[in-house]
Design goal:
By secondary structure, the protein is an alpha+beta fold. 34% of the residues lie in helices and 21% in strands.
């Protein structure tokens, strides 16, 4: 195709889906469109090729309920606070650190600092009993990973859902929601919207794993479903 070729024109159905998605974002008080809003936009637009494909794999009313739960979750709706310079979003999240029978309370402060080249840039800092740990990352799941990598040599684990052995984000969760949600993955089973949990929600210490073990489990899960739709990467 020539470089100066005109881009495809949006179809009326595409425009309708986008309008429905914008309505959903407005209804939930969100200021940008995510894949969840677009999925509801497809469902709101009525019967189509897309809904026909979805209906082969999931119950559409149950799918709608699952998406609504994600949009209503604390992780998705974490309040956006203006930075002093008028920059991006920020928040502080209390977490529990675990080392054997030891427990200590800590706080992860994070902020979205805009885009650096093609990628979003997040900064996060863990305030705990040791020296503060400051990291930069392309999404908040990756920021959590980098914090965990600095804690692991000292035997500490962050007791949140994003540190579970069987949890990992999909590419869409990273790109559209900043890694603030992850999927719980069961080997041999495809992921479903109802498997989404908040990355920084509290987790049972017995479910935690090292970063290396978590990545190995994600790779094992992906092989077990042969790289199906929605595979984390």
């Amino acid at each position: 195709m020539p470089d100066d070729a005109a881009p495809p024109r949006p179809t009326p159905r595409y425009r309708n889906v986008l309008r429905h998605a914008e309505d959903q974002a407005s209804r939930h008080g969100h200021h940008r469109l995510g894949v969840e809003h677009l999925l509801l936009g497809i469902l709101d637009d009525g019967e189509s090729v897309a809904t026909g494909v979805l209906a082969k794999y999931v119950d559409l009313p149950e799918l709608r309920k699952a998406v609504e739960r994600v949009l209503a979750s604390e992780g998705y709706n974490r309040p956006a606070q203006a930075e002093p310079d008028g920059g991006g979003r920020s928040a502080s999240t209390p977490v529990t650190l675990v080392r054997g029978d030891e427990r200590q309370q800590a706080v992860i402060h994070w902020a979205w600092q805009g885009r650096s080249g093609p990628s979003d840039l997040y900064r996060a800092q863990l305030d705990w009993s040791g020296e503060p740990i400051d990291v930069g990352a392309g999404d908040m799941f990756d920021a959590l990973v980098r914090i965990r990598e600095q804690l692991e040599p000292q035997g500490w684990f962050v007791a949140v859902q994003g540190s579970r052995l069987d949890a990992f984000p999909s590419a869409m969760q990273r790109e559209m929601a900043g890694g603030l949600n992850v999927y719980v993955m069961r080997v041999g089973e495809p992921i479903r919207l109802g498997d989404a949990v908040e990355t920084f929600a509290e987790a049972d210490p017995g479910l935690l794993a090292t970063v290396a073990a978590q990545h190995q489990h994600a790779a094992k899960w992906q092989r077990s479903v042969q790289g199906g739709v929605g595979s984390p990467r």
